[in-house]
Amino acid sequence: MYSKTIQKLIKLFSKFPGVGPKTAARFVFYLTKQDKEELKELSKTISSLNTLKTCNFCFKLFEGEGNLCPICSNSLRDRSLLCVVAKETDLESIEKNKIYKGLYFILGGTVSTLKPKELKTLRIKELRERIKNPEKFGISGASFNEIILALNPTVEGEATILLLERKLKDLGLKITRLGRGLPIGGELEYADKETLKSAFERRTQQ
Amino acid sequence: MYSKTIQKLIKLFSKFPGVGPKTAARFVFYLTKQDKEELKELSKTISSLNTLKTCNFCFKLFEGEGNLCPICSNSLRDRSLLCVVAKETDLESIEKNKIYKGLYFILGGTVSTLKPKELKTLRIKELRERIKNPEKFGISGASFNEIILALNPTVEGEATILLLERKLKDLGLKITRLGRGLPIGGELEYADKETLKSAFERRTQQ
Amino acid sequence: MYSKTIQKLIKLFSKFPGVGPKTAARFVFYLTKQDKEELKELSKTISSLNTLKTCNFCFKLFEGEGNLCPICSNSLRDRSLLCVVAKETDLESIEKNKIYKGLYFILGGTVSTLKPKELKTLRIKELRERIKNPEKFGISGASFNEIILALNPTVEGEATILLLERKLKDLGLKITRLGRGLPIGGELEYADKETLKSAFERRTQQ
Amino acid sequence: MYSKTIQKLIKLFSKFPGVGPKTAARFVFYLTKQDKEELKELSKTISSLNTLKTCNFCFKLFEGEGNLCPICSNSLRDRSLLCVVAKETDLESIEKNKIYKGLYFILGGTVSTLKPKELKTLRIKELRERIKNPEKFGISGASFNEIILALNPTVEGEATILLLERKLKDLGLKITRLGRGLPIGGELEYADKETLKSAFERRTQQ
Predict the structure, then answer these.
(1) Which of D8, D25, D63 sits opposite A45 (nearest CB)?
(2) CA nearest neighbour of C10 among C1, C20, C18
């Protein structure tokens, strides 16, 4: 039997996404072999997550001066486009690939079920306020003419898109969603029915 | 060491796509346990592949009366749409899912490299002839107004699409290709750069 | 829909072990692209499985002169050792690796369940006869002093070993079975409980 | 771009065994969603790894009174058997399955290469001292008559076993190693050459 501290740490690591007790044990023994400095640094960095600030406009985590994250405070970004993502890692996927130059808004989740409690955690009211009056949240010179709902074409993503379309309709803006169809490099033969159907329905000239 | 016949059959099965010697041996020993009737039927069915006819219009394999396959001879299909696929299994994927009601044309491959010899095996000339004069190949009452290039969004598929667009341009028809983007059920976080880029570029209202 | 012959061949290939309809279709279209000679050869080789002989002593399939397979008729093999395997592919695994120089006997299966009907297909009576009187089955100068039960350490293999030990006990021969424990290259950390237990129980000096 | 703290934590988690940057990011965002208490507890538990004691006899990590871990201080364990393992997770695998009742010794690694520097980290001198005089290290009434080298049958494990056998020979004790062969539930057909060879060489009666 492992010692209590080790057991406790295995239990804490086992809560990490995708980590089972065997992997958690491997993490702990990796740590027991590190020197005191490394452990201290890890411990301190985890603690300092508590001090991260949340961007006033897009809800991204950041640190530093002011109330806006580096993307929102960058005046070179295209302030006519707003891209709504479910979570910060999605924002990072898009940024990393340098395929978009507008602003973001982190919704904080998707409609996974219809539990009223969960729905409240989605930042729909906050999204409406920021679209209507970006100035109020620190973004000057912004006037959105397109809201891109960059949500997954999954059951949860689709439900969220439907909800957002309904909740934003009265603002009279162009609302778009990401293209669906065969992924680049994918093969027709292995596509599931829904993807193939979508690829036929959304066929394009060019 | 296996007997000569068994070795030979292992070798022949090993040429099947995705089959290594171990799997091939398992196939052979499966067969040695079947009764004579089953072996005879398999042997005969393989032989009779030689007697399959090729559809005069779309190049699908078929058997029975006449020169046209059941799809091409079915007058209820929409004869204003022609869907070009690389191979018969692609046609089957589309048919099985019942997402398309027009006619097909099997191109016989994709432009995998630029070797002139390989290019000749693609049925481009045959495609042009059938688009211009379907009647001549047994399809009456057809007048295509859209050619759907249902090729994979892979390097080979893209090269083939470019080639076909060039070769068919003078016919003045609407040429489309399948929608690309996030596959249904897919997640932004796991999409590769090209798919994500494509999903942003091809974003749609609704 | 595929043509009847193609459907039939897909159905026949789908009965092969580990082959589903998609793989079967790929096999068929691989074949439709081969020339007549290749198809004929495959068809003929499958047919000629019917003409294979079964070795009078060990039940291996073979072709050629006489009643014995090349292993049984090879007078350089060690005729004091008899290795009992469940099926011919097991024999081949051992031969290929050149780790054994005695004779074999193919039992024809394992005790998968206790159905009396299945038990009858195991060649237990034949095994006893051949151990007692190898000369009668064409093996001269043989006198076994060890019977190796090379069966898998699975539930089925264990049940078969127990059965054989009981059925051969009165012959008064040394009966052995393959070593069990950690596989070479394996790791303690990933071993299941039974393997680890077996490895401790069967620990050895040297 | 993620904030500096997040980037730093992703970098620290990416050093964990088997964790890439994508998984590390998932860990970090999992943490950003936890409340302050949870973060504090994780941070504190990691810090307290520094306070773990090492068992005076077997080198297992533990906490509590005295110099010996719970296994070494348990007088009901069989003090005539000593099981040498490479690392603490191996000890745990054996304990968890309740297949051994003696004492342990954690060697601290295996001979992965012949670098003199690495060899020094193996506790060979410590092992000899504890075998010769367990009393001196707090274990009373112990007198080992068997040393079980529970190391993996891998290249590294084999090299370590050879080294230990040489280094312990003069002590005149029975030295054993774990059984090798087919793993329980394994199949002959899929065994690699070395495992199959080992299974034949180590065949047993019963």
Answers:
(1) D8
(2) C20
Residue D113 above 60 pLDDT? no
Chain D positions in Cβ-Cβ contact with residue C195 (cut-off 8 Å): 183-185
- CA angle C106/C108/C109 to nearest 5° reads 120
CA A178 to mean position of chain CA atoms: 15
What SS3 class is residue A61?
Answer: strand
The mean per-residue pLDDT over the stretch D154-169 comes to 94
Query: Does CATH place domain C4-49 in 3.60.9.10?
Result: no
pTM for this model (two decimals): 0.76
Condensed to tens digits (0 to 9), the pLDDT of residues A150-172 reads 999 999 999 999 999 999 999 99
Q: What is the DSSP letter of A104?
A: E
Mean pLDDT of D124-145: 95
From D133's Cα to the closest Cα of chain A, the distance in A is 26
The pair of structure tokens assigned to B18 is 């995705």
Residues A162, C131: Cα–Cα separation, whole Å: 77
C53-177 CATH fold:
Dna Topoisomerase Vi A Subunit; Chain: A, domain 2 (3.40.1360)
DSSP state of B150: -
Structural tokens at position D65:
């009174």
The residue of chain B with its CA nearest to that of A189 is: B90
**Yes or no, beta carbons of D16 and A30 under 8 Å apart:** yes
Contact between chains at C1 and B95 (C-beta distance less than 8 A) = yes
- Is there a shared CATH topology between the A4-50 domain and the A54-177 domain? no
What's the CA gap between D103 and D73, in Å, rounded? 10
Query: Residues 6 or more apart from D130 whose CB is under 8 A from it?
Result: D57, D82, D105, D137, D139
When computed from its CA atoms, the radius of gyration of chain C, rounded to whole angstroms, is 21
CA distance to partner chain C, nearest, from residue B63 (Å): 6
Q: Does residue A113 have a pLDDT over 60?
A: no
pLDDT digits (tens, 9 = 90+) for B91-137: 999 999 999 999 999 999 898 755 666 677 899 999 999 999 999 99
Identify which of D187, D204, D206 has the shortest CB distance to residue C179. Answer: D204
Distance, CA of A47 to CA of A147 (rounded, Å): 36
Q: Say which CATH class D58-177 falls into.
A: alpha beta
From start to end of chain A, where are the E strands? 53-54, 61-62, 78-85, 102-106, 146-149, 174-177, 204-205
> Which pLDDT value is given to residue B118?
65
**What mean pLDDT, rounded, does chain C reach?**
93
CB A99 within 8 A of CB B200: yes
pLDDT confidence bin for C24, thresholds 50/70/90: very high
Yes or no: say if C36 and B47 are a contact pair by the CB < 8 Å rule.
no
* Test the C interface: residue of B12, B13, B45 with most C CBs within 10 Å: B45
* CA A176 – CA D167 distance, rounded (Å): 73
| Interface touch C5/B50, C-beta < 8 Å | no
Task: Tell me which residue of D131, D128, D125, D85 sits closest to D108, measured CA to CA.
Answer: D85
What whole-number percentage of chain A has pLDDT above 90?
83
Closest CA to B97 of C7, A194, A182: A194
CA-nearest residue to A95 within chain D is: D1
Of A85, A189, A192, the CB nearest to B90: A189
Instruction: Provide CATH code, domain D4-51.
Output: 1.10.8.420
Determine, for residues D26 and A17 on separate chains, whether the beta-carbon distance falls below 8 Å.
Answer: yes
Q: Residue ranges of the domains in chain B?
A: 4-51, 54-177
| D179–C180 C-beta distance less than 8 A | yes
Interface test with A, best of D19, D47, D52, D60 (most A CBs within 10 A): D47
Q: Determine whether domain A4-50 maps to CATH 3.10.620.30.
A: no
B49–C9 CB contact, under 8 Å: yes
* Six-digit token string for B57: 């219009």
Question: What pLDDT does residue D118 have?
Answer: 65
Q: Does A54-177 carry CATH code 1.10.3370.10?
A: no
